[in-house]
Structures are given as C-alpha cells and as structure tokens.
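Task: sequence design from structure.
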C-alpha cells in the first residue's frame, strides 16, 4: 500500500462526497472508485483506464493528479517485482528439466546435418540420371536429309511475276484533326458609379456597335472621348425609335440617357444592364481593343 487510496478517500470525505456523488461527478463506476481507494486494481479494464480514473478522481477532490499518478506508479513497480519473484521458481524447475535433455539436444543438430547431406546426394544422382538419358536420346536422331532447290522455281513466298514489292506495307493514315479555335466572348463589365456617371468596360470584342431603343420619350445623346456628337443630333427620341451606331474607332463613348426606364442600350447585340436606379444617367463605356 502506497497511501494513494487513503489520501483520495480522505480528500473525498473532506469534500463531503459519497462514492455515489463522486460517481455522478466523474462518470466512473462506483466499484472502480472503491477499488482505487482500496488500491485493488484487479477489476479494472486495463492500466490505461486505471491512470485515467486516478487522474479524474484526483481532480474531482482537489488533489494534484500528477502526484497521485506517481504514487500509483510506485505501487505498480512493487506489484511487478512480486510477480517476477513468483515466476522465478517455476522457471528454475524448467531449466533443470532442460538440462536433463541436453544430450538429446546435442544429437538433434548432427542428425539434421546428416539428413541434409543425404538429400543433396539424392538430388545430384537424379539430375545426373536425367542428363545421361537426354544425351542418349540425342545420339539416336537421324541426320537431316539435304534439301535441294531448283534454281528455275521461285522460292516459296516469293513475289508473283509482274508485281513489285518495295518491302513496305501500305498504311492509310488519317490526318490529325485540326484544333478547334477557341471562341472568346466579349465582356461588358461594370466598374463604378459616381453621381450620374456609371462606367463600364468592353473587352474581347472585335468591334464596337451601339443600338439604342426607346419605348417612350427619352433624351439621347452620344459623344466620344473628344466630345464629338456621334448621333446626328442629341434630341428627345420618341417611343419605338432606334439608333444604330458603329463606334469601333473610339476609346470610349458617353451616352446621355434622359429616362432609363424608357431606354434600352445594346452593345454588339448584348443588352447593357443599368447598375444604378437613377432615372437620368450618363453611361460611359470604355473600349479596350
């Protein structure tokens, strides 16, 4: 006994815990808690669980778990020493029994070596007999008759008269399929909005065309980077009117829209979505060639 169980029990009593209370706190079965207090670990499922239970018990009653585990290790070392001492006597008895058979043990290796030599001799004799029979069979083979060929007759497998064999097999090769050209679709990207100005960028486009449709009255004007009016005249467009412009030569355009709810803008056939809810806007499209 190392005093481990007594110290744990005293700490539990000082806390006012019963074994049932401690079982509820630690979730350790009551019989295991009792076994730890009595330092009887025979019913425990294993050494790992013993250490874990002692650690939980110690922490629940406010003791240093490392110190309690050290006491358990001392107890475990003592128990191992007693077990080893109890095993010495039967081991000594077995040793004496082995000494009685020492002469038999000395003869066994010699017998094995002799048996191995006999096996080698038998294998060599069988191989020699097999080789001798093969050589005898070769001497009984009749010599091959000499084969003569008529020089006037073409040898078997020769090319028929009138045909030419160039030694190559005709193979039909199919041309490699041409790689498909990657189609790059244009992209209209919204950038930012400042006041009435909403900026977009047009990329991966081979050209730059505008189509402006109105479903009601709306002021429309289109200017390029030099503030040159690209429409015939900035004006109010009526419902059902359409303007089509090719502005591929510019770096950007500024479209003045009086009423966005009445105006649809198409860039290279793709409808532009308004980023702002403002009724009157300046749509600026930067063309990245």
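Answer:
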């Amino acid at each position: 006994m190392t005093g481990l169980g007594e110290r744990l029990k005293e700490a539990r009593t000082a806390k006012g815990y019963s074994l049932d209370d401690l079982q509820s706190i630690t979730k350790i079965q009551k019989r295991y808690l009792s076994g730890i207090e009595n330092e009887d670990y025979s019913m425990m499922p294993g050494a790992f669980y013993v250490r874990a239970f002692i650690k939980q018990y110690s922490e629940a009653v406010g003791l240093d778990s490392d110190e309690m585990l050290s006491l358990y290790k001392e107890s475990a070392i003592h128990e191992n020493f007693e077990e080893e001492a109890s095993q010495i006597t039967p081991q000594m008895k077995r040793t004496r029994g082995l000494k009685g058979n020492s002469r038999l043990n000395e003869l066994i290796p010699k017998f094995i070596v002799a048996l191995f030599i006999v096996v080698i001799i038998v294998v060599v004799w069988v191989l020699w007999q097999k080789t001798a029979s093969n050589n005898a069979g070769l001497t009984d083979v009749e010599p091959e008759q000499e084969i003569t060929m008529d020089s006037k007759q073409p040898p078997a497998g020769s090319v028929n008269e009138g045909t030419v064999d160039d030694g190559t097999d005709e193979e039909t090769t199919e041309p490699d399929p041409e790689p498909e050209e990657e189609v790059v679709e244009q992209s209209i990207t919204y950038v930012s909005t400042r006041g009435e100005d909403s900026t977009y960028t047009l990329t991966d486009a081979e050209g730059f065309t505008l189509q402006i449709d109105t479903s009601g009255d709306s002021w429309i004007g289109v200017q390029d980077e030099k503030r040159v009016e690209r429409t015939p005249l900035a004006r109010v467009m009526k419902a059902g009117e359409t303007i089509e412009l090719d502005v591929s030569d510019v770096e950007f355009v500024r479209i003045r829209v009086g009423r966005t709810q009445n105006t649809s803008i198409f860039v290279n056939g793709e409808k532009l979505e308004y980023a702002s809810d403002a009724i009157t806007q300046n749509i600026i499209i930067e063309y990245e060639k």
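The first strand starts at residue 187 and ends at 194.
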